[in-house]
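Summary for the funding panel

The consortium committed to producing paired sequence-structure records for every protein in the target list. Below we show the first two records in order, beginning with the earlier of the two.
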Amino acid sequence: MVSSRAKRLVATAVAFVLATPLSGCFLPNDDVPAGIAIPGRYRAGPLQADSALPSVVWWRGFGSKELSDLIEEALTSNFDIAAAVARIVQADANSRIVGSALLPVVDLNASALRSRASQSGGAGGRSERITYSGSLSASYEIDFWGKNRAALRSAEELAVATRFDREVVALTTVVSVANTYFQVLAAQDRLRIARDNLAAATRVYNLVKQRFDVGTASALDTAQQESVVNIQRAAIPPLEQVVQQNIATLAVLIGRTPESIRVHGGSMARVRIPPVTPGLPSDLIAQRPDIREAEAQLASAGADVYSARAAFFPTIQLTGEGGYQSAVLKTLLRPESAFYNVAAGLTQPLFDGLRLQGQLDLRIGQQDELLQLYRKAIVSGFADVERALIAVQQTIRLVRLQDDVVTSTRRAFEITETRLREGTVDLTTVLINQQALFNAQDTLANNQLSRLNAVVGLFQALGGGWQKPRPDVPKDTPKDGPA
């Protein structure tokens, strides 16, 4: 007979063995704050910050119907967006798969068995038997500790993250279409400038040639101006290449082959600059889909940590089976043919080579990694808006200043061209002024493209206005209004 002291020692040892793995379960809450200080306003934003958000169809503010048609076609036909939607379907299916652990598994079983015993041993009696059976079997794991519910929550948060990922892909696609379209417009503008400059250089060359014919200009003067003409002529093919290549890129973005797309383009001068209100920094966390995606992934990791902790607890499994079994088919469904069995099992991990502890440490490490990525996404979002605001302000200013440069250099070139006709200016002065004009015009076109890209970048940094849709943008938008 075992003494009471020995019983107490055995109970203490069992309690210690059970308490060791379970001790990891009693830890603080899995909800981890980001720990990021939210600024009251953007440094480069307006002094009086407001909570206005961009329109959901913000690209219409540029006033280009062709651009709007391209973007709206891309939203329905882009392959990357379609792939993101497919990932949503996969994540939803995975959630259903994981959630099935919370429900019992029920199977219908039916069989007919015919058997014949060996007669070689001299055994008598009936040599053949037929057994019919039909039954229902069920098994269910009691999720007493919430392990399966936490796994389902993790899968559901990942499904939410895929939806935000789809918004990220859609916003990136819209921005890519807009920037590529503006690249086409900029190349067309620069192409027109190059052709106009070629015509101007040709006019000057003809004047120099006439002076050379009458002996008032040297062969060097003619060769220098001819070089300018050739340089301007050589600048045209690369710009034509840029136009065609960007049109091909647009075709891929809208899910079509290059030969099936026609882009008329136009000029950046006819594109409106829509005003953009950055709103409050506190709104950015809810506006940016990439931040919301990182938040959902962090929540999923928190659920994984909870599930890994719950794995230290015992697993309680219920199984049952009931049905009918008979050697004669016509008596199969009689009460005397009924049978059933019910079982309950409990499994407590005691020693697994620290596998469960390793899984918990892995989940905690993944949660910490996603926490840092979530914090980085928030800080990066604020920095993106600041950079975009600075870019919009400076490019608008730069375009205005460069426009003054073009105006003054054009006036200087026109004066020198007139005096060249009169024979009162040397060719060196003409060469300097025409090169200054050509460079100033090309720089202005590049600055206008930078201004459009900066405005698009600000819309992207603000999340594109996807969360609070508005039906339309204002129709009367100033052409060069402040962003």
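The next record, for a separate protein in the list, is shown here:
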Amino acid sequence: MRWSAFSRLLMMLVCVSAPSLVAAEDLVPPGSKLELLYTRSAPIKGGLTEGICAAPDGTMYFSEIPFGDDKGMIMRFDPKSMKTTVFAEDSHKSNGLMFDAQGYLIACEGSDGGGRAVSRWDVRTGRREVLTDLYKGKRYNACNDLCIDERGRIYFTDPRYLGTEPRELEHRAVYRIDTDGTVAEVTHDIEKPNGIAISPDQKTLYVADHNNGTDRIDPTAPPPKKGAMKVYAFPLGSDGLVAGPRKTIVDFGDEEGSDGMTVDTEGRIYLAARTPSRPGILVIDPTGKEVAFIKTGTSQAGAREPTGNPSNCDFGIGDEKNMLYITVDKSLYRIRLNATGYHIPWAK
């Protein structure tokens, strides 16, 4: 029987119960759906889960970020036992997380009472060490998210969304910590850098520009005027620094844009899109063309406080290498895909 074009189009979409999924059949297996793994139960207020990342032992670490005086936490999910435990009871308001080649957990610490630093945790002992909390003698705004290249250099973003601490730096920039500990500004050709990832060939740095229009989120205040909500591709030279003009590969227009992101071994980029009319994981190729979409919430166009919003995502390793983990609101989900996550060489 010959199918119509409309029927073939319908077969390319998979829909499941909320949070649900809409995606291209070649990337998302038929019947694959989001699985709820964890929802916050700690008595901390506001904020969200964030910073999901894979550890060398196959477990997944993520941040619990509250508002105000409550301390943030770093959580650990074990896919074997399906249990979530507290790794650090005081995360210093960690946000983005990633493991380096030596097995240390690197954390971006934000403002609103946080460390405003990039730190390193020994997950065996629980010992924390600050890698950098100053650039040219001035405190960072609020370190947000990071990626690590195959030479061990740490790229991180420094916007500001929360807190009353005074800003000391002129720019909201992207920085890099070299293996000798020196810090260099990579670019400030961006309004408010947030999510960040590096391509598997190490030649492109992807950065989400998420300018919500304020340095201090206040649900009781009138909505601020938003700035750029885009995703840029910056070409990198052999020295790992920006070697040409940025290219806009996604423009979300007047809606909320991308938060965190990750990449797979084919170079596709997975964006945690907080767009109220279409919240979910937007999968694009390096040119910005949409490849798939994983829906994490219902359309809430015009909502002041939308729910079902993703904040970050990362692939597991080993038996979980095809599993995409996603932080949504105050919960953690996962979904199996026909894709393999890219990780720096420790994961191989």
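Regarding this second record: The chain has a mean pLDDT of 92. The radius of gyration is 19 Å.
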